[in-house]
């Protein structure tokens, strides 16, 4: 009877193990790259949302001040509910005086519209934008129109983003 001999290549098992190991390493590298890209995308998306909130707050503040662009109608007062200062805009409607309070509370830029001297609570206000900081300063120089400087900012994954609004009131008069 003839014996059938099957040639055994030395090192074949080692080569197959090396190929499998390289395939596993390549798979792990691809997975790590995909996870890193997903995290980066998430950070970019969060940063874009924060910048969008800043732009909403900036546009809102600019519009509110320009709507009431008169000396005496715009004041800076201590914030009754939040931190720092509040921007207070006074309007006379149907012989009744109203105040619009714009202030920061718990990371939200908020607005409250009430009768002058009315009680300001969280329920009487609404959220304008989610921001981390709001600072308003009014500079009254004798013989010149008042200047308002508003700093708003938010903290993001790429550091702090800040917008500064500098306005000079154009019209004189007041309530």
Structural class: alpha+beta
Number of domains: 1
Helix tally equals 1
Largest sheet properties: 5 strands, antiparallel
List SSEs in N-to-C order: HEEEEEEEE
Q: What is the overall silhouette?
A: rod-shaped
Strand content: 35-45%
Gyration radius, to the nearest Å? 31 Å
First and last CA, distance: 120 Å
Number of strands: 8
Helicity, in percent? 25-40%
Please list the strands of the largest sheet in the order they lie side by side: 1-2-3-4-5
Short structural summary:
The protein has 175 residues and is α+β, with helices and mostly antiparallel strands. Helix content is 32%, strand content 38%.
SSE diagram, text form:
Blueprint: H1 12-67, E1 74-78, E2 83-93, E3 96-105, E4 108-115, E5 125-130, E6 133-139, E7 147-156, E8 159-168
Antiparallel strand pairs: 1-2, 2-3, 3-4, 4-5, 6-7, 7-8
